[in-house]
Hints:
By secondary structure, the chain is α/β, with parallel strands linked by helices. It contains 8 helices and 11 strands.
Amino acid sequence: MPVHRPGPASGRTLAVWLTALLGTLSLVIGTAPAQAAPHRGDAHLGMGVLAHDGSSGTPDGSRAAQTEGVDVSGHQGAVDWATLWNSGVRWAYTKATEGTYYTNPSFAQQYNGSYDVGMIRGAYHFATPDSASGAAQANYFVDHGGGWSRDGRTLPGVLDIEWNPYGDACYGMAGAAMTGWIADFLNTYRARTGRDAVIYTATSWWTQCTGDSAAFGAVNPLWIARYATAPGTLPAGWGVHTMWQYTSSGPTVGDHDRFNGALDRVQALANG
Length: 272
């Protein structure tokens, strides 16, 4: 009886074997799966800082003439305000809204909770200029927690204008179109509340997406984002910063900030 000996593997068999081998190697090497894009509403203050500007240290431990603060949003849920107060935090900002489609489900606990332990508090709006006009978003913000009252413990609202986490960094409207959108928001906010909103941004984003506009520095306080030992170069129009977000990995809530002044200056901003 003739003996049938196996011949060389066919091209198809070899391809299957190579595919399996490559799959095994990728597991051994540890190839990371692609991260899912964030959902609308997930954005928060400083979301793009690490990815675009990185981190190069933190400020020294001295807080002379500075006042520690924090900023929070829905992804942090219920916040332990007592622990933050006992650690020296004296002011806080809470995300209220995004675009004209999102309100923070944890807003009441965060906004009122900070106030209840004695902090000076305020609210911020994450801007998405490609989704609605500046005026529409300012009105939505004021109508959903972003207002202001002269009670000595409520800070003016913040326009969080930074990298688009859902698409083009400048929302498809860099330059004059972006500065026009910002002006529309700020003018509407002032008409509704009587206060000039604070602008939160990063110098690199501002330079890229507004053409480094100097149009707002004389009126709107600056909250600068930079994870480093110092705030660094400020956007055009501002000679000084009012607040500085210096880390996203601080104690208890992650996002920590310093007010450029002692507590009486925080109170002065609240009083207008």
